[in-house]
Known about the structure:
By secondary structure, this protein is of the alpha/beta class. It folds into two domains: 2-174, Rossmann fold, CATH 3.40.50.1970; 177-358, Dehydroquinate synthase-like - alpha domain (Dehydroquinate synthase-like, alpha domain), CATH 1.20.1090.10. Helix content is 46%, strand content 21%. The chain contains 14 helices and 13 strands. Strands 4-3-5-6 form a four-stranded parallel β-sheet, with helices on both faces. A three-stranded mixed β-sheet has the order 1-2-9, with helices on one face. Strands 7-8 form a two-stranded antiparallel sheet. α4 (107-119) links the parallel β5 and β6. The model has no long low-confidence stretch (mean pLDDT 95).
Amino acid sequence: MKVIPISKDGQKIYDIYLDDSFDGLLTFLKGSPYSGRRVCVVTDSQVAPLYLDAVEAICAQAAGKVVHFVFEAGEASKHLDTIQDLYTLLINEQFDRNDLLIALGGGVTGDMTGYAAATYLRGIAFIQIPTTLLAQCDSSIGGKTGVDFRQYKNMVGAFWQPKLVYMNLNTLRTLDERQFSSGMAEVIKHGLIRDKAYYEWLGANAKAIMAGEYEALETMIERSCQIKRAVVENDPLEKGERALLNFGHTVGHSIEKLKDFSMLHGECVAAGMIAAAAISVSRGFISPEDFADMKKTLLSFGLPCQVKELSPEAILRATKLDKKMDGGKIRFILLKKIGEAVMDRTVTDEELMKGIGACL
Length: 360
């Protein structure tokens, strides 16, 4: 098992465990303040049949009582009504501030469980057990939690750090190819914004990664976690540098909403990265050759570079409702060069329209 510590102001706040099973979870629970306490495992209808029994059995060896909350899988469940149902269970089971929630699943599960933990009794502990590539490499790290509000993605949320992020890398074997590819969008993003050598390594090792070779996956996830750690440690509340992680997300979230979540998050982010990279080319930051290589890399991991049946005008309007607006201006993330991103508040509607056109 590999351990990556996450710190704030020089003090460790939690660890990321990279393992090949769930076994190490028991050691953590027995040595934690949650030994003998109530534990609620939150998961969705797709993950529950695969891993809920195994995780509950481990928790039962350390907890005083274990219950679970299973919701219908998918972004459509990521709203306050689902959170209210979870609150009701916790109240009925008499959970108090010393008890523990466990998020078992992908990004939707982690976001909702973290938000429930942040707000139930003004805050109780939770841990992340991400089972998708997207969650392992990105959404489980850094303490951003939230739910969608009507058609607006992640508009309601809180910063609430987990006590542990525990990754069983073998859970990736149960992902279908489309879900795995979706997670690769965030992985590729990490290289593009922070580490050119890592980005190039991904392209060179695409076959091994897509084949699920364990050593390649472990190397990849460890490096992505290190990049995400470095950014969130420097800017835990997204006041500056952390916003760079939103590369591709402004246009991506707009596409995701307009497509009524029929496209996966990573697929939308991939298209959003194309739009942002096209603007970066027009600004003279990256070369057309860099842009072509980026498209090639995304396609090699099964990610789309274009979306259909949307108008650039509709996408532009949707970006104006994005939560990353600042004083009426979009905080847009561009590539200064491959491996280095920059936040820009001067991107015009005309530039946005041209960028959006590159992914349509």
